[in-house]
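Entry 14. Ran structure prediction on the chain below.
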Amino acid sequence: MLQRNWYLSVVFLCLSLFSVLRMCAATQDGAFRELPLDRALALASEQKRLVFIDFYTTKCGACQKLDQYTWTDKKVIKLLKEKTIALKIDAGKEVSLRKKYAIQAYPTLLLLKPDGAILDRILGYQPPEDFLASMENSLADKTPLVLAREVVAGTESGDLTSQIDARHQLAQTLAQQNQDPEALKEFLWLYDSGMNREGYAQARGSVAIELECLAKRYPPAMEALQQRRGTARNRFLNAPSTSSAQDFKSLFSTRDWGLACLEVFDRLPLGSPGRLVLNDWVWDVLVQRRRYVEAAELRPLNAFLVANAGLECGINDLKSDQIAYRANRNFYITLSMREVEALAGVGNLTDARTLLKKVLFMDASVKTRQLLLKHLERAGHPELLN
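Output, structure tokens:
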């Protein structure tokens, strides 16, 4: 064990040394200089250049690829030397600069004007050819943001579909460039107006997810998102339907939707049609929380069998394709195990046994029996497996 730990320590030290040496080579022999940012901006003003910054971290694999392939390219070195004052900044050490320029991912490459304003922001690894093309566009004032604005301007008098596509691209580019106020404005137009029509349900849901991502760093976006969640929730409570439920669901990520759905479910009285509308989304959460009475109310055995009859029949049709057969069979068994737990938990042992036999007929392996036992133990009836 000591020998293994010693070996790992040596390997780590060698990798760290290699990274440091590559960094030094990029600084000494390449385009990058060792200067504080204020001095680099002053030089850029004097020499009529821009300041280029590679914000990196020592654990970033894409950053190391830039060091290895892009920053050693002769054409890249020539361009950076001629047009910029180039710096490499360790975002782990320069916390104030990381916060000032809202660095969210690595590597982030910034092109700054001499006054410190951001001209362009490039995210992620780019091989030399792509980086040179990006820089040429930036230097010609054809940044992705400029181009996206031009496309929007060209669609203002055109058809709505083109305008929606253009403004969606603009919103995404604004968010990528950390232009949060304007990005929020565009995302809200898309969600409230542009995509609030037939045929855009899926795209509108994608915009809601992008809005949620923006909300994680920009509080006004979170406030706008919460307002729309409240409006959609009240609309569903006042008039429960599949459409109003989908509208509400579109405002949540998969991770957060279960609890939001349960909160609305709990506001509805027993037997409410609205509870049935939420069935497919809330049922798993109810079983996870051992709320078996409500789970069994929503999905008795007959309802479960009818809802999954197509899946069960399809499994038998797939026996010639073993991969598809196993995937569908395992999915059906997973659903059935939860149903068995709910039925046993509510005391409907006869139906629980019926479905239990069906599961074991499909797969009586040790693994399946162990999983079934866990579900039955949660429900308080492990003896059903005997």
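The radius of gyration is 29 Å. Will compare against last week's run tomorrow.
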